[in-house]
Write a structure and sequence with these properties.
Layout: H1 4-27, H2 36-40
């Protein structure tokens, strides 16, 4: 029965951390645009790189 005196504060601490993380996510605008990522996979990229071009700057030209 004495273990309940340890488990209740630990559970309350977990709840406070979870609520804190939720409010941080809302404040940092994580939930503002929920549709953009789910729809973006349906469309092709507008800019396509040519196969012979490379972004690697270490190759000599």
């Amino acid at each position: 029965m004495s273990i309940i005196y340890v488990l209740i504060p630990i559970a309350m601490l977990f709840v406070l951390v979870a609520v804190g993380i939720f409010f941080w996510a809302v404040k940092s605008e994580q939930f503002d645009d929920l549709d953009r990522q789910s729809v973006s996979i349906l469309f092709d990229d507008d800019i396509k790189q040519k196969p012979n071009e490379s972004n690697d700057e270490s190759t000599p030209h």
